[in-house]
From TrEMBL, chain A:
Protein name: Amino acid/amide ABC transporter substrate-binding protein, HAAT family (TC 3.A.1.4.-)
A Pfam family hit: Peripla_BP_6
PANTHER family: LEUCINE-SPECIFIC-BINDING PROTEIN (PTHR30483), PERIPLASMIC BINDING PROTEIN OF ABC TRANSPORTER FOR NATURAL AMINO ACIDS (PTHR30483:SF6)
Keyword Signal belongs to the record: yes
Automatic annotation (TrEMBL), chain B:
InterPro entries documented for this protein: ABC_transp_permease, BCAA_transport_permease
Record-stated family: Belongs to the binding-protein-dependent transport system permease family. LivHM subfamily.
Primary location: membrane
Name of the protein in its database record: ABC transporter permease
Membrane topology annotation: Multi-pass membrane protein
A cellular-component GO term for this protein: plasma membrane
Length: 451, 343
């Protein structure tokens, strides 16, 4: 009150306050873009920025992990302006310049997740805390993806998921800091069921063998729902441990179960083993209920098809992408990857490569590495040219909505790589769904946790 | 229902054959040398990798570029031709097709040398040491073998194709005069079962009907007395160790078409085989075989949906449950000698 008596007016108080703000250096943090730039995990201060690649290089999904690693290394080369540029040339719209990200060269560190969720989480923690990774990406199992996604939400680091197909990844376990380009089990069911009905009829009895973890459960549920909706019955659904090698004890009960279709909710080496052994048990030569016995693998990749060899011929499944599509993006990526590694890329490699580019593009568009701004740039982003047609990164659940492929094991391959044929491209409108059906909460992007 | 039970029984025999074959070597070493050999699983794994190595050798290729054809990424197409086929023509093709069976010819001498070198080089120094030390040193050997294989062949499984005409299933139902296409079973699994039966029978016959076997059996019963008779029992036991290594190695080779081998495959089987040996009775050959088949069959039936509906997860624990019961009720195992493993 004494101050006012000396004649300190409101104007004088405001002037003094403003001078104080400017004097203490707070003003630039209020009035300039990127004011929050100092306040997030692993803010890159040097001339490089580091990606953390979390890859299953051993375990049931090791082949996918190895292919993902090749794709990430190629993507990083292209982002840094090396090589032929790959999909940088065809991504629309694109803010990428081929000079790194925001002028910083991209580097990477990697960790073998061993296809185990706890190891994946530990590896991601190490890459964030020790190696200063700005973004974590990779993985080939939904168990890993969900575990790492949760960690990234806690640490304030963006996670661009690799191959993960469980509905839970962008469903009940979705996170604000997690993004998935790969399609999901629900979309596999919607895309695959009509083709199965057309090929095998509406009166079928199915027996499911299911990998006993989040992905297997949601795929089993999705395929059951989709096939039962068109008239099929489910005889039994039996869970098998992830990483099982000998499926004989699970296969023998099927032979006289009354089923005429075996649905293998397995992936990677598990699927190679179970499919090969099912064929060894003579299932594809059997008759049941007056019909030819059939085997279906709802999620299949060219790596698995190659591993299963003869057994995969004529088998139906779905894929996120396939290298022999004829759009400009697919041709560019296949050419780039094939020239570098001598084999066409798998769907795991494709999704890994695309995720790396999409993150980099989002950072360029946001003009900052600050995660909440990058998240905003990714949410609701529409793009094209990456091999899947027009694609939406849906804001509500961070699931990419795009075309889904129904594929079939090639009966007469012309080369060792020519193992799958695309029989149908299911348009994205058909496989889009209400994100609310799987529940879950994305959670906040701010305040940004500090790792 | 009969078909289901019959198939599960067949499946149990198939699994049991694998367990019995590994447990046989394990209990043979324990019965002759008194050594608890935790490296026995590694011998199974080394055998499997003899098959892998053999296949890699015979699939060495020549690569030529065909500029008239392009790969999907625009480079000239690579034409690959196996050298063995170029050199041996039709026989080369047969060699490639039956590589698993031919690889046994490589496996037998390799495993014999490995077994004898292991026994003479390391294990003989631990005969009179406590079982705990034997377990430590043999477990260490197993880890060394695993890491060596991992560094040469990588960490991931390497599929081995089975011969084309032995793929698919045999119609056992029709063979037994029943309805066709009801009881079918994979041909290679039947071959594996027959192979195991022949090897087990051969080992028993060798021990039962040869002078060498008679001396070994006498040494197993009373080593000192046999030594006092002027017989070099140590030499015979060394050969038995080599023989056990050969049996484990051949079991590994024949299993490769069923399960792509990786460096860890031996450890997966070792634990189960030890349970088999304990259930059968440490050092008892008939016990190991009987317990192998018994546990294989029990595991197979425990995997039936009807059983799993009653007791979820029973297929994963049945073997260990039986082991616990046996150790509580009859510590020396089903056919073990009185006093062994008993207080």
């Amino acid at each position: 009150m004494t101050l006012l008596k000396r004649g300190l007016s409101r104007r004088r108080v405001l002037q003094t306050g403003l001078a104080g703000i400017i004097g203490t250096g707070v003003a630039p943090m209020i009035f300039t873009k990127g004011a929050w730039a100092q306040e997030f995990c692993n803010n890159p201060t040097g001339d490089t920025v580091t990606f953390g690649l979390n890859l299953p290089l051993t375990g049931a999904y090791a082949e996918e992990g190895a292919d993902e690693q090749k794709a990430y290394e190629l993507a990083i080369k292209h982002l840094n302006g090396e090589g032929d540029g790959g999909l940088l040339n065809v991504l629309q719209p694109s803010a990428l310049k081929g000079n790194g990200i925001l002028g910083k060269k991209v580097a990477f560190v990697s960790s073998d997740s061993q296809t185990k969720s706890d190891v994946a989480r530990a590896g991601a923690t190490r890459m964030i805390e020790r190696d200063g990774a700005i973004m974590i990406t990779g993985g080939s199992s939904s168990g890993e993806a969900i575990a790492v996604q949760g960690l990234c939400q806690e640490m304030g680091v963006i996670f661009m998921a690799g191959l993960t197909h469980s509905n839970d990844t962008t469903g009940k376990d979705k996170k604000r800091y997690g993004f998935r380009h790969f399609f999901n089990a629900y979309q596999s069911g919607i895309g695959l069921a009509p083709v199965l009905g057309q090929e095998y009829g509406m009166d079928r009895r199915a027996y499911h063998l299911t990998a006993d973890y989040t992905w297997g459960w949601t795929q089993e549920e999705s395929i059951k729902n989709a096939t039962e909706a068109m008239g099929w019955n489910t005889v039994a659904a039996v869970r098998t441990p992830l990483g099982s090698t000998d499926y004989s004890q699970y296969l023998t009960p099927i032979l006289n179960s009354g089923a005429d279709v075996l649905i293998l909710n397995h992936y990677g080496l598990d699927m190679v083993n179970s499919l090969t052994q099912a064929v060894q048990f003579g299932m594809r030569d059997r008759q049941a209920n007056g019909k030819d016995f059939q085997i279906v693998t709802p999620l299949i990749s060219e790596l698995m098809a190659k591993g299963a060899g003869e057994s995969v011929k004529g088998i139906f499944g779905t894929s996120n992408w396939h290298w022999n599509l004829q759009d400009a993006g697919t041709i560019a990526f296949t050419k780039s990857f094939g020239a570098a590694y001598g084999s066409p890329p798998s769907q795991a490699a494709h999704t890994a490569y695309v995720q790396a580019l999409l993150y980099a593009d989002a950072v360029e568009r946001a003009g900052t590495f600050y995660p909440p701004e990058v998240i905003k740039a990714l949410e609701g982003h529409e793009f094209d040219g990456m091999g899947n047609g027009a694609t939406l990164y849906r804001a509500e659940d961070h699931q990419c909505i795009k075309n889904v492929l129904v594929v079939r094991g090639n009966e007469s391959p012309t080369s060792e790589f020519d193992v799958l044929n695309v029989v149908q491209e299911v348009p994205r409108e058909t496989v889009a769904y209400d994100p609310a059906i799987f529940g879950g909460e994305l959670g906040p992007s701010e305040p940004v946790p500090m790792c | 229902m009969f078909e289901v039970i019959f198939l599960q029984f067949l499946n149990g025999l198939d699994k049991g054959a694998a367990y019995a074959l590994i447990a046989l070597g394990l209990t043979l070493v324990f019965g002759t040398l008194g050594v608890v050999n935790f490296a026995h699983g590694a011998l199974f794994m080394l055998g499997a990798f003899c098959a892998v190595l053999f296949r890699q050798l015979i699939t060495l290729e020549t690569v030529t570029l065909d500029p008239t054809k392009l790969s999907p990424w625009g480079s000239p197409l690579e034409i690959r031709e196996p050298l063995v086929q170029a050199w041996f023509g039709d026989f080369g093709a047969v060699l490639l097709n039956y590589s698993v069976l031919f690889s046994i010819l490589l496996t037998i001498p390799v495993m014999l040398v490995v077994g004898i070198a292991l026994e003479r080089g390391i294990i003989k120094h631990f005969y009179k040491r406590p079982h705990a030390e034997q377990i430590l040193v043999t477990f260490g050997l197993a880890i060394v073998a695993q890491e060596l294989i991992k560094s040469f062949f990588g960490p991931n499984p390497i599929p081995q194709p089975m011969p084309t005409d032995l793929r698919g299933a045999a119609d056992i139902g029709a063979f037994l005069g029943m309805q066709a296409n009801v009881i079918t079973y994979p041909i290679w699994r039947l071959i594996y079962f027959l192979f195991a039966a022949v090897i087990i029978g051969g080992v028993f016959a060798f021990l039962q009907f040869t002078t060498f076997g008679m001396v070994v059996r006498a040494g197993m019963a009373d080593r000192e007395t046999v030594g006092l008779l002027g017989i070099n029992i140590d030499k015979r036991f060394t050969i038995m160790f080599g023989l056990a290594a050969v049996v484990a190695g051949m079991a590994g080779v024949m299993y490769t078409p069923l399960l792509p081998p990786n460096y860890h495959i031996g450890m997966d089987f070792l634990v189960l085989s030890f349970v088999v040996v304990v259930v059968g009775g440490m050092g008892s050959l008939p016990g190991a075989v009987a317990a192998g088949f018994l546990l294989g069959i029990l595991q197979s039936f425990a995997s039936m949906t009807q059983v799993k509906d009653l007791i979820p997860g029973i297929d994963q624990i049945i073997i260990y449950l039986v082991a616990v019961v046996i150790l509580l009720v009859r510590p020396r195992g089903l056919l073990g000698r009185r006093g062994v493993m008993e207080a």
